[in-house]
């Protein structure tokens, strides 16, 4: 790795070419900037933060070898993996995969190709473990990455069979149980619970409860309700004392309906304590919104139908906070979802009289905490998640102002 701190080094390319670096050294020699080729090579090495040309050369060659290993993993080339890692056992610790956690993590993630782990991929993982890969590499990254997706359960089984801990914390701060909670994959979540994951341990360690993690995740899926039911059945509780919203999210519309019948004004109530609802892009939450805002955020058309049938206002603005941020109607939540997730709900709200011209002052991009935007629903949809989506096309087709 770079070792010369005397001057800020030039960033080395992700895929450095040794021939290109040699040509750079020759150019220094030809222009008279160096007297000898070895002197020119030393200058090039130091420009990239290395003490010597051999150290730079070794680094470049190792990156090439790591690239070969990644390609072999991506193509499930077991023979090439064995050859590379047997010839160079240091590759078991190569900075590869998610967070550069290591080859076993990349194997366990099954991202390229995106498919369930078949016999070859499982055999690769077992061979790596048997020949020097650390099951806990990257702070228990292999199990954490495997647990993100339901169809990776066979990989989870292999890892736990070889010593991975279902109650570990990835990098010391992210319980493995949170992985399927984040991505809303109930089969992986159930597998962890059935195989010893303690649903109360995260709170004992100072984390949110898994139930609150599911409620607050940026993911959107009908499977959220299933994940919530699994955790509630396992004894998890929520810090959020909003029973009507909890019943809506976990799909118990029968209970929600009974609540509304017993307390008709509930359909109009605004909840400042709804501190969740942001996505991976936008910072807008449900704070100050109604139950219809909640239904719109999570694409629950049946819940929205129930609420409107009981008198909910399709154009109810969320309450403004102390800085006059807010005022969005449920439509804003429906149209600013990933992958057109809220399109069906948006169509329903528009058919039910949603006002397309209403403007609101709202939090902007998740990575820009100082950004706020005054916008219509279409303008917000165009910003989050951005691009030409079916939702945006729908809004423009009906003349929504931007």
From TrEMBL:
Matches recorded under SMART domains: ANK (SM00248)
Keywords: ANK repeat, Repeat
Entries under InterPro entries matching the protein: Ankyrin_rpt, Ankyrin_rpt-contain_sf, Multifunctional_regulatory
KW Repeat (keyword) present: yes
Transmembrane segments: none
ANK repeat boundaries on the chain: 138-171, 287-319
Name of this chain's protein: Ankyrin repeat domain-containing protein
């Amino acid at each position: 790795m770079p070792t010369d701190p005397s001057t800020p080094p030039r960033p080395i390319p992700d895929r450095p070419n040794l021939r290109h670096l040699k040509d750079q050294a020759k150019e220094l020699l030809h222009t008279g900037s160096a007297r000898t080729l070895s002197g020119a090579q030393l200058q090039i090495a130091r420009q990239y933060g290395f003490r010597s040309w051999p150290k730079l050369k070794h680094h470049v060659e190792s990156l090439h070898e790591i690239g070969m290993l990644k390609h072999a993993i991506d193509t499930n080339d077991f023979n090439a993996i064995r050859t590379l890692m047997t010839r160079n056992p240091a590759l078991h610790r190569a900075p590869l995969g998610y967070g550069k956690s290591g080859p076993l993590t990349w194997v366990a993630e099954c991202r390229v190709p995106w498919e369930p782990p078949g016999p070859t991929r499982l055999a690769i993982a077992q061979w790596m473990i048997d020949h020097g890969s650390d099951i806990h590499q990257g702070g228990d990254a292999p199990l954490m990455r495997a647990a993100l997706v339901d169809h990776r359960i066979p990989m989870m089984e292999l890892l736990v069979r070889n010593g991975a801990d279902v109650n570990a914390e990835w990098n010391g701060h992210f319980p493995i149980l949170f992985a399927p909670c984040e991505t809303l994959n109930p089969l992986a979540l159930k597998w962890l619970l059935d195989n010893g994951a303690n649903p109360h341990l995260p709170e004992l360690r100072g984390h949110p409860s898994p139930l609150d993690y599911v409620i607050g995740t940026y993911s959107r899926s009908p499977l959220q309700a299933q994940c919530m039911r699994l955790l509630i059945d396992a004894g998890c509780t929520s810090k959020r004392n909003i029973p009507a919203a909890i019943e809506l999210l976990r799909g118990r519309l029968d209970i929600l309906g009974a609540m509304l019948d017993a307390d008709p004004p509930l359909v109009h109530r605004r909840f400042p304590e709804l501190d969740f609802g942001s996505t991976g892009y936008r910072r807008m939450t449900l704070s100050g919104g109604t139950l219809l805002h909640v239904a719109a955020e999570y694409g629950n058309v049946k819940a929205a139908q129930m609420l409107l049938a009981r008198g909910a206002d399709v154009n109810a603005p969320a309450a403004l906070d102390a800085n006059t941020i807010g005022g969005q109607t449920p439509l804003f939540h429906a149209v600013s979802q990933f992958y057109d997730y809220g399109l069906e709900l948006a169509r329903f709200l528009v058919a039910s009289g949603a006002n397309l011209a209403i403007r609101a002052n709202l939090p902007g991009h998740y990575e820009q905490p100082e950004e706020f935007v005054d916008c219509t629903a279409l303008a917000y949809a165009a910003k989050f998640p951005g691009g030409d989506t079916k939702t945006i096309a729908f809004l423009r087709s009906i003349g929504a102002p931007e």
